[in-house]
Amino acid sequence: MHSQRVALVTGASRGIGAEIALQLAHPDIHVVVGYRSNTERADYVADAIRCAGGHASTSAADICDETAVAAMIDDVATRFGRLDMLVLNASGGRQYCTEPGPAMHQNRDAQRRLARLALPLIPVGGRIVFVTSHQAHFYPYKAVPKGYASIAAGKRAGETTLYAMRKEFDRHGINFTVVSGEVLSDSAVDFAAAVADAATSPGHPAIVYVSGPEHLTRQPA
């Protein structure tokens, strides 16, 4: 049995997911770098985590593929016997999901399925963190960048679906936090650090806002 805490970060071979995985680098944490197909990039992230003094491995799965996701969770169970932190990070372009209706499948259906599959592995006090953008969190109340509406709708639906599971999370003693940041921002490191903090801190609010203009992060009337 591994004494380290175990974190699984989905979509961790690139972008904000990769930065989140790097922010989790710590001698007491083993980071599973989840990715769909780019083995080279996932290996690079895992190597960087090790170079930073952490522990890491990679796990390939299209999160829209139920069989592949089940195999990924089974692999985590076999290797570690637990999953202390599940970071649900997905963006949802058509190129990242093989099923029809990619944004909704990836950001709602796949996230819900992955959370349910992971529940038996997450101990009391464990954490599930859903990564979203301000544009998705406030959708449809705020304007979104051109071409982003379907992704925003999918991520908003994913957030709503996971909120609906909070009673189930509570029964398992699992904490759930949403971290929302700018979809187009120069502060990716700050965003990733906030996600890592939400995953590792003993206590956290239900929603964390990272950067962004005040008018955007204000709750809709």
Automatic annotation (TrEMBL):
Cross-referenced InterPro entries: NAD(P)-bd_dom_sf, SDR_fam
Top-rank taxon: Bacteria
GO molecular function: oxidoreductase activity
Coiled-coil zones: none
Entry keywords, A to Z: Oxidoreductase
Family assignment from sequence similarity: Belongs to the short-chain dehydrogenases/reductases (SDR) family.
Protein name per the record: Short chain dehydrogenase
Organism of origin: Mycobacterium dioxanotrophicus
